[in-house]
Amino acid sequence: MALPSGPIQEKRLLRMTVAHYRQPHVSEEDFHRWVTEQHATRAAKLHAKNGIEGFSMYFAPQSFREMTTKLNTQRGNPWVVRDYDAQVEFLFRDMETFYKGASDLDFQALQAEEGPFISGIHAEISIGWIETYVSDGHVVNIREDGKPDYPAFMELSVPP
After folding, report:
1. 78-93: pLDDT as tens digits
2. Higher-confidence residue: 7 or 96?
3. Mean pLDDT throughout 2-12?
4. Sign of the torsion formed by the C-alpha atoms of 93, 94, 96 and 98
């Protein structure tokens, strides 16, 4: 699949992740229920309206973190095992799209409801771009010469 020609925003899919901890008094089950049944279902509609191309939630309950710690130990502890409860993933082409969503008054009102469930302490954010090489079990974005079908690093690494 050839990438579109044109500005980098058409070729590069940005990924922002925000990792959150739940409030200490909220159980993992109640946190999951609130995120999935109340927050994410409403946020999804707002993100789509504002041009976000992807919105996903990643959950890592204590049972998974313990399993990951055991895996890490078995492999000689090569990794830092993150201990947050959930991570939000946003996919978009340019920062203007992100800013549009962040300034949406309905989204701001939704964020204002997070306090009883999401701790504001130690939240983590990252922004980068995605290069996909396997999708739906198929190799993608690799040309016949075996090279990736993405722009060069110097073009991709220009800050959005």
Report:
1. 999 999 999 999 999 9
2. 96
3. 71
4. positive
CB atoms within 10 A of CB 130: 12
Structure tokens of 69?
A: 């710690």
Distance CA 101, CA 94 (A): 12
Distance CA 90, CA 106 (A): 17
DSSP class of residue 16?
E
User: Amino acid identity, residue 71?
Assistant: L
- Residues 34, 44: Cα–Cα separation, whole Å: 14
Grouping H, G, I as helix, E, B as strand and the rest as coil, residue 91 is strand
pLDDT tier, 11 (very low <50, low <70, confident <90, very high otherwise): confident
CA dihedral in degrees (82, 62, 124, 106; nearest 10)?
A: 160
Give the SS3 label for residue 144: coil
Separation CA 74–CA 103 (nearest Å): 45
In tens, the pLDDT along 110-123 reads 999 999 999 989 99
The CA-based diameter of the chain, rounded to the nearest angstrom, is 55
Which 3 state secondary structure label does DSSP give 63?
helix
Q: How many CB atoms lie under 10 A from the CB of residue 143?
A: 11
- Residue 7 in this model has a pLDDT that exceeds 90: no
Token code pair at residue 44: 């999804």
